[in-house]
Design a protein that fits this description.
The chain is mainly α and 209 residues long. The protein is 70% helix and 0% strand. The protein has 6 helices and no strands. Helix 4 runs antiparallel to helix 5. The relative contact order is 0.11.
Length: 209
């Protein structure tokens, strides 16, 4: 693992921990501190994988990936995915383990995680568009990966706007959040198994021979 790679993942880990710490300081609840612990453990997992399995970075990158936009795009997206994963953990807890009425402060933690995750996802999409312009000459081409990224982004946007409706149903909102996370998984790695993406998607990379 090179020093540059370590710095990239260290920055991602610090950012991830900072969001959890901010939530804990702001909310001062057990769930907030649990979110901080989750974020910290997840960040440590990312760092340990790269420290003890450096060979995963020893492959020669194809020309499209040899770009200064590679690191910021991936770091921002991984950070967004981690925070949105934490919001999904909160949603699962509130849906299946919270037997009483959901308190506003518990929902606030979930909302704040979604706000942060969606913001970083938006920044990641902008970085990706700039990268695509440099690599392929266009910002957006409705490639299967880009299409699912847009669907995922819109799904989380639906959650954010639905939560602003005074008469919204809390449990329905949580189900929207869970569906959004499933779409995120489809965008992240599920796209690699779609027949429509095989041989046609510029985001399905193969190692050079």
């Amino acid at each position: 693992m090179t020093w540059e790679q370590f710095i990239y993942f260290a920055i991602a880990a610090v950012l991830l921990w900072a969001v959890g710490a901010w939530a804990a300081w702001r909310e001062k609840t057990a769930l907030a501190y649990a979110s901080t612990s989750f974020s910290t453990v997840l960040a440590l997992v990312f760092i340990c994988v790269n420290l003890f399995k450096p060979e995963i970075h020893s492959k020669t990158l194809m020309p499209a990936l040899q770009s200064p936009w590679f690191a910021p795009h991936v770091i921002v997206y991984m950070f967004a995915y981690a925070v949105l994963g934490a919001s999904t953990v909160m949603a699962l807890y509130l849906l299946f383990f919270k037997r009483k009425t959901i308190a506003d402060e518990e929902f606030d933690i979930t909302d704040n995680l979604v706000y942060v995750g969606l913001a970083f996802m938006t920044i990641g999409m902008l970085f990706g568009a700039l990268w695509a312009k440099e690599a392929w000459g266009h910002y957006w081409s409705w490639d299967p990966k880009e299409t699912w990224a847009a669907i995922t982004w819109l799904a989380y946007l639906v959650y954010v706007h639905y939560r602003q409706i005074p008469t919204h149903r809390p449990r329905l909102a949580l189900w929207v959040l869970l569906v959004s996370f499933v779409l995120l998984q489809m965008c992240w790695w599920g796209i690699n198994y779609l027949p429509a993406a095989q041989g046609s998607s510029v985001h399905v990379y193969s190692l050079p021979s």
